[in-house]
Design brief:
Helices cover about 65% and strands about 10% of the residues. It is mostly helical and about 220 residues long. The protein folds into two domains: about 5-120, no CATH class; about 125-220, Arc Repressor Mutant, subunit A, CATH 1.10.10. Strands 1-2 form a two-stranded antiparallel sheet. Strand 1 and strand 2 form a beta hairpin. It is elongated. About 25% of the residues are buried.
Length: about 220
Amino acid sequence: MNEKDKQIVKDSALVVADQIVSAIPLLNVAWELSKALYGAGLKLREQRALEWVEMVRDNPTTFSEEILQSENFQDAFVYSFEKYITERSEIKRQIIKQIFLGYAQSQDLEQFEIERMISLLSLVSQKGLELLRILNQVSTTKIQGNKLSDYLTTYLVNDSNNNPGKYNLAPNQNIREIWADAEADLISIGILKTYNTPNPWGVDPNNYDLTNTGREFIKYISS
């Protein structure tokens, strides 16, 4: 595809986005605000802009007229839209969509911490996202009062036994070590909390669970 054809595709994406917005009553306010603030950037990320408005179009029961005309929604749309079109990671862009949908489905838009959720996402490494998906999976069998980290250890041991060579462990290496950096990162940004749990050898710093923020955040990682 030559440069002229590429430009036609880009221009077409923004035209289609405008057409979608024109067919959704009351979305135009949030869309025009976004275009006014990020007009120059949209020329470089028109496909992502189209994906964003398609998300609204494809969820008509979530984006009711009452929500669309809310000033709170319009501000959240502009904020989230900017984060979406500038995010390099395809995986994280999909999560931003899920966070925004969660916001729109919330019973209290004012109290939903959309800025905090997206800000947290920007701090999570790719390895951290992988770990959160595993933690979400193992948490479905978690019994109240038990530590999530214990379930992770059991999961990893079983996974390693069922898939020989998957983790390339050194002799006598603790399987949890491969996630140590991701665990530390998630603890440092407040998604995980540690427990100083005593054992016969002293205190084990590797016991942790999700914080309240982490429990909310993980919903969007697994969607």
